[in-house]
Structure formats: structure tokens, C-alpha cells
Design a protein that fits this description.
Layout (H helix, E strand, L loop, with lengths): L11 E6 L9 E6 H5 L3 E7 L5 H13 L1 H6 L4 E6 L3 H11 L6 E4 L4 H6 L2 E4 L5 E4 L2 E6 L2 E7 L10 H9 L1
Parallel strand pairs: 3-4, 4-5
Antiparallel strand pairs: 1-2, 1-5, 3-8, 6-7, 8-9
Enzyme class: oxidoreductase
GO molecular function: thioredoxin peroxidase activity
Family: Belongs to the peroxiredoxin family. Prx5 subfamily.
Length: 168
């Protein structure tokens, strides 16, 4: 499992881009994790699924609400990662006002999630392989803080906890 001090694993995440520009076309675009984190401080939070109760009511909204505070703390970008496709992540982000605040990064095949070792197998509940709920600060691709939730919990991966770590 990924731990503090580790380099993020290489991988590709997909983001639905609403406006063509900066070399991106409208629709799902692939982003290389190593290239996207190089020289940046990124707040990453991951969750089991878009549109799920805790994720929709608390996890994502907290990061959207605190986006300016993260910027003030020196964080360049905030990423929401979930084992969903880019279309679902894009729609969920649109409905929650994430544009310009949180990048909605889909890991449809769970390949990045598997590479981190932060997998949550919810097959028995009809969800398949998903991501554990966690948050982390990544600086130039290196994990500086990592907050992994216990099963069914939402206590340490919230925006307030990660923001305090970014400010500290």
C-alpha cells in the first residue's frame, strides 16, 4: 500500500474536459499522473463512487467549498479520484459546481487505484472493485501526508483535515 514518502505510481487518469483548449479536446482526456504532478503540490482525495451518499453529501462538497483556502495554503490543484469513467465524473462535477475548483479524475479500470494498493472490493454489494476513501498531499509526485479511512468511515479524509495538514 502507498505510504508517506512514496512516489505516486505511474498511471493514467481521465478527466472530462468541458471546453476545448490547452491541447485538450472536449470530452474524456487522458492525463499522465507523473507529468501532471511534476513540480506541483496536489491535494488528492479518493472515494468509492460518484453519486454515492457520503461522497455526494460531504466528501466532494467539502473540497469544493475549501478550494480557495487550499490555494491560499500553496496547493496548486485538488483532484477527486474515483473508480468511475470520465463521463460520470464530469457529470457529477458539473452538478456540484466543481469546475475550476476540483479536477474530477476517473479511474474507470481501477488501474491507478490498484497501483496505489488502496483498493476496496465491494463486489458483494454490487459495486465491484473501488477505491478506499482517502486523502493525501502530494508534492512533486511524492506523498507528503496520507489519510486512509477505516471501512465505512468518514473521519480523516475530509477537506478540513487535509487543509490543516496543507497549512501546517
Amino acid at each position: 500500500m502507498l505510504k508517506i514518502g512514496d512516489q505516486l505510481p505511474a498511471g493514467t487518469l481521465f478527466e472530462y474536459v468541458e471546453v476545448e483548449g490547452n491541447g485538450c479536446s472536449i470530452g474524456p482526456n487522458a492525463f499522465d499522473v507523473t507529468k501532471e504532478t511534476a513540480g506541483k503540490k496536489i491535494a488528492i482525495f479518493a472515494l468509492p463512487g460518484a453519486y454515492t451518499p457520503t461522497c455526494s453529501a460531504q466528501h466532494l462538497p467539502g473540497y469544493i467549498a475549501q478550494a480557495d483556502a487550499f490555494k491560499a495554503a500553496g496547493v496548486d490543484e485538488i483532484w477527486c479520484v474515483s473508480v468511475n469513467d470520465a463521463f460520470v465524473m464530469g457529470a457529477w462535477g458539473r452538478e456540484n459546481g466543481a469546475a475550476g475548483k476540483v479536477r474530477m479524475m476517473g479511474d474507470g479500470g481501477a488501474l491507478f487505484t490498484q497501483a496505489t494498493g488502496l483498493v476496496l472490493d465491494l463486489t458483494a454489494k454490487g459495486f465491484g472493485v473501488r477505491s478506499q476513501r482517502y486523502s493525501m498531499l502530494v508534492d512533486n509526485g511524492v506523498v507528503k501526508t496520507l489519510n486512509v479511512e477505516g471501512p465505512g468511515k468518514f473521519e480523516v479524509s475530509d477537506a478540513a483535515t487535509l487543509l490543516a495538514q496543507a497549512q501546517g
